[in-house]
Write a structure and sequence with these properties.
Blueprint lengths: L3 E7 L26 H4 L7 E9 L4 E3 H15 L4 E2 L6 H10 L3 H10 L3 E10 L7 E10 L4 E11 L4 H6 L1 E4 H8 L12 E5 L5 E2 L4 E2 L1 E5 L4 E7 L4 E6 L13 E4 L7 E7 L6 E10 L22 E2 H8 L5 E10 L6
Parallel strand pairs: 1-16, 2-4, 2-5, 10-19
Antiparallel strand pairs: 3-8, 5-6, 6-7, 9-12, 11-16, 12-15, 13-14, 13-17, 14-18, 17-19
Helix pairs in contact: 3-4, 6-7
């Protein structure tokens, strides 16, 4: 029998920084904080501040370099007698507050941050030939009570000589965290029931293992299966060119078994010698959604950078209130035993 293979591959984090091969850098420059004065001027003496991520604006990566600047900002505020609360990863809620105003978002942010103001931001690496490497920082401060952007600041600093390994040290990705933690609005009547599991009880696979995804949902719901790859991009598992997708007839759907008889789902790591982690996200919706722009990987092993921007998936789901989501994390590699 001639099988068409649907291959899912876990990829390793890879960072390419180009155009900066011959830079002059100076020691200790990263210690200087010169651009936070506009924010300091807007903070009242009795207000407290929580500092969220400062992440790579280009791809949303949370890196050791960004965390260093997070420390620098905290120190700069403390040097001006501003009270700093413990670190809080609340940037997801901040984005919601900026988009939709205060209300529930305000309450959630205040409870999680335990502060009156949240400071967050992004950075970009500036590389211009033989010039010294520089980092361009953008910070913003939001007052939680009224969802007001009270101040922002953008400035450049010269980088120290160790910036490359720090920028390559990835601690997470903002958009992947959004995709993993996004919660559909509380209109329960519109949300379909959803339960999902992998065929491996330990959610671990060796290279070349076949997998299945067992899904239970309400009849009439539309299903969408995404693979979140380790390079922070997304590929589409279902629907695909072999099975276009239709409202679920029964309460259980097994992928790829009920998709097409001649399709198999195989797991591979990019590096045969390493154990890798990824996830499959199952979305069930009462309305038909359009994810046709997301690449579908078949008859080939996934390679770095072939997926779609995870932010686009997040933005589509934010427009609807008729869906539910389950994330299935798994590992694959030589030490993964069934």
């Amino acid at each position: 029998m001639n099988f068409r293979k649907l291959v899912v591959t876990i990829t390793l984090f890879t960072v390419f920084i180009s155009g900066c091969q011959s830079m002059r850098t100076r020691e200790g420059a990263i210690e200087e904080i010169t651009g936070i004065d506009p924010i300091i001027e807007k903070i009242n003496f009795d207000e407290t501040v929580a500092i969220s991520w400062i992440y790579d604006a280009k791809n949303g990566n949370i890196t050791a370099l960004g965390n260093i600047w997070r420390d620098r900002v905290a120190k700069g505020l403390k040097d001006h007698d501003i009270r700093i609360k413990g670190r809080k990863d609340v940037v997801l809620l901040i984005d919601d507050m900026e988009s939709f105003g205060s209300g529930k978002a305000e309450k959630d942010i205040w409870e999680k941050a335990g502060a009156d103001i949240v400071v967050t931001g992004t950075y970009r690496i500036i590389c211009k030939g033989g010039d010294a490497g520089k980092i361009l920082l953008y910070l913003k401060a939001l007052r939680i009570e009224d969802a007001e952007l009270i101040a922002s600041s953008e400035w450049a600093e010269t980088l120290g000589p160790d910036w490359r390994p720090l920028a390559s040290n990835i601690r997470g990705n903002v958009y992947q965290k959004k995709f993993q933690t996004i919660i559909a609005p509380e209109n329960i009547k519109k949300q379909p029931f959803l339960s999902a599991r992998l065929n491996s009880s330990k959610a671990s696979y060796q290279a070349g293992d076949n997998g299945q995804i067992h899904i239970q949902t309400d009849p009439g719901a539309y299903l969408y299966l995404f693979n979140l790859t380790a390079d922070n991009t997304v590929t589409l598992l279902y629907p695909n060119r072999y099975c276009k997708g239709a409202p679920i007839v029964g309460k259980e759907f097994v992928f790829p078994k009920e998709c097409a008889k001649d399709i198999e789902l195989e797991f591979y790591p990019l590096n045969p010698d390493e154990i890798c982690r990824e996830s499959v996200v199952v979305v069930a919706s009462t309305e038909k959604l359009d994810f046709s722009f997301v690449p579908f990987q078949s008859n080939d092993i996934y390679h770095w950078g072939r997926g779609e921007d995870i932010k686009k998936i997040y933005n589509i789901l934010q427009q609807f209130d008729c869906w539910n989501k389950v994330s299935l994390n798994y590992t694959v590699g030589p030490a993964c035993k069934k």
